[in-house]
Amino acid sequence: MAKVEIYTTPTCPYCMAAKALLRKKGVAYEETDVSRDPDLRMAMTQRAGGRRSVPQIFIDGQSVGGSDDIHALDAQGKLDGLLGLPA
């Protein structure tokens, strides 16, 4: 199974949607709340290639974008493979 990291804020509906999709697939993830720590937010922004919006999602260290991006990957049938889920 892939290592999944997600940067979030508590009230973000897109963060909630992304986490719900991961939970639905039975995927564990490491969540980092960047709402109260500007240094964490800056680290996320640098890691995500300048993107400041949340969520920012990383699978095995690679940025895959935000909620819309992982939902699009799922719709295209590509997300399960990235997550290391059986076909």
From TrEMBL:
Keyword check for Hydrolase? no
Task: Output the Gene Ontology terms for molecular function.
Answer: glutathione disulfide oxidoreductase activity
Q: Which GO terms describe its cellular component?
A: cytoplasm
**Top-level taxon of origin:** Bacteria
Q: Name one Pfam family in it.
A: Glutaredoxin
Q: Which residues form a coiled coil?
A: none
Alphabetical list of InterPro entries matching this protein: GLR_AS, Glutaredoxin, Glutaredoxin_subgr, GRX_bact, Thioredoxin-like_sf
- Identify the PROSITE patterns for this entry: GLUTAREDOXIN_1, GLUTAREDOXIN_2
List UniProt keywords, sorted A-Z.
Answer: Cytoplasm, Disulfide bond, Electron transport, Redox-active center, Transport
Which one GO biological process term can you cite for this protein?
A: cellular response to oxidative stress
Domain annotation Glutaredoxin: ranges: 4-64
Q: Give the family per the record.
A: Belongs to the glutaredoxin family.
Q: Which NCBIfam families match?
A: GRX_bact (TIGR02181)
- Provide the function of this protein: Has a glutathione-disulfide oxidoreductase activity in the presence of NADPH and glutathione reductase. Reduces low molecular weight disulfides and proteins.
Write down what this protein is called. Glutaredoxin
Query: What is the phylogenetic placement of the source species in the record?
Result: Bacteria, Pseudomonadati, Pseudomonadota, Alphaproteobacteria, Rhodobacterales
Gene name as annotated: grxC
